[in-house]
Amino acid sequence: EAGVAQSPRYKIIEKRQSVAFWCNPISGHATLYWYQQILGQGPKLLIQFQNNGVVDDSQLPKDRFSAERLKGVDSTLKIQPAKLEDSAVYLCASSPPLDEQYFGPGTRLTVT
Amino acid sequence: QKEVEQDPGPLSVPEGAIVSLNCTYSNSAFQYFMWYRQYSRKGPELLMYTYSSGNKEDGRFTAQVDKSSKYISLFIRDSQPSDSATYLCAMSYYGQNFVFGPGTRLSVLP
Q: A24 with A4: CB under 8 angstroms?
């Protein structure tokens, strides 16, 4: 079974620029999550999708972050404009409903 | 008070030791409890997944949940150098509101 795929793996941008991350979940997994993991901290949930609907986006900074999940499969997370404090690893995970999550390798973002 | 607290370590043990990792939490609504292992520059990998209180064993790993004390533990028996990683506890209620602890860094010395 193929795992969760993410791209790019690394990205360096200047502050105020925009950036987008892509995630392809495990086939058949209805639930998709985006997390932000700052160095030395645990992952923080940004948004949770069930199929293509949003279940929880309470911690998503909506003035600069947006996410979509077209057709209930792939998802993109966008930051516009980026701030220095957005430097982190962005993790995507997927799961069947009410079941354990499987994480991708993450995208390491550096904002300079 | 943070929602989930975990000793950040680092915790260093000799090979073969029994390791005890712990988390405390404040929200009594949490029903699902998980332990993840994260190697450097990798995504978290699920180790144990339990519902409500009780124990669960899988090979060298045992997870314990005490909801009355809001305390969860992960025990690793016969620890190996390959167990050296950061261990994250996580919890949720009814498949939502996932919260992770900050992680404990473990080093198992040969």
A: yes
The answer to whether residue B43 neighbours chain A at the CB level (below 8 Å) is yes
| Per-residue pLDDT tens digits of chain A, which is 112 residues long | 689 999 999 999 999 999 999 999 999 999 999 999 999 999 999 999 998 899 999 999 999 999 999 888 999 999 999 999 999 999 999 998 667 889 999 999 999 9
Set of chain B residues whose Cβ sits within 8 Å of the Cβ of A101: 34, 46, 98
- A11-48 in b/e form (b: 16+ CB < 10 A) is bebeeeeebebebbbbeebebbbbbbbeeeebbbbbbb
Instruction: Tell the residue number behind the tokens 């405390």, with chain if given.
Output: B24
Dihedral in degrees, nearest 10, Cα atoms B73, B79, B82, B86: 30
Which chain A residues touch B if contact means CB-CB below 8 Å? 4, 31, 33, 35, 40-45, 48, 55-56, 91, 93, 97-106, 108
CB-CB neighbors (< 8 A) of B90 in chain A: 42
Of B44, B45, B96, the CB nearest to A48: B96
